[in-house]
Amino acid sequence: MKLLSVLCWAVAALGVAAVVGGQVFQSTMASRAKLSQIVHVSAINELFGKPGYEPVGPAEEMVVDAPAAILSNSGPHGEQLLDQEKLLKFKVAPLRMATVRAWALVATVAGGMAGLLGLVGGVLLLTRGGKIAPPTDPET
Q1: Mean pLDDT confidence for 48-61
Q2: Can you give the pTM of this predicted structure?
Q3: Is the separation of the CB atoms in 124 and 134 below 8 Å?
Q4: What burial letters (b/e) apply to 47-57, b meaning 16+ CB within 10 Å?
């Protein structure tokens, strides 16, 4: 019974870790995409002097740090690098981003369910003194 109790608490701990990991992963991806878009637009505006220039795609599609590559190569061929066709290779497909978000959501939900199941099992084992089966009637 001790092994079963330890197993329940381990499942609860893993579930909590999966929930926290899924949430941290989602927030990290969102902040990276937003930062990439901000630097991306400012780099293009600085080099071309065109205020209000929009990036290739929405912020959630851009997770690769393209501005660093653009700024490091902004010498005589910098304008060629900033060509729209060349920027497309830095864009992450929306389907790929949706898949990443879906897996993070699955990890969060599955972790929450496993954590709840392990917590309930651990509490039941503690409160019932290690007895899983209901008490039997001695007269039968």
Answers
A1: 48
A2: 0.39
A3: no
A4: beeeeeeebeb
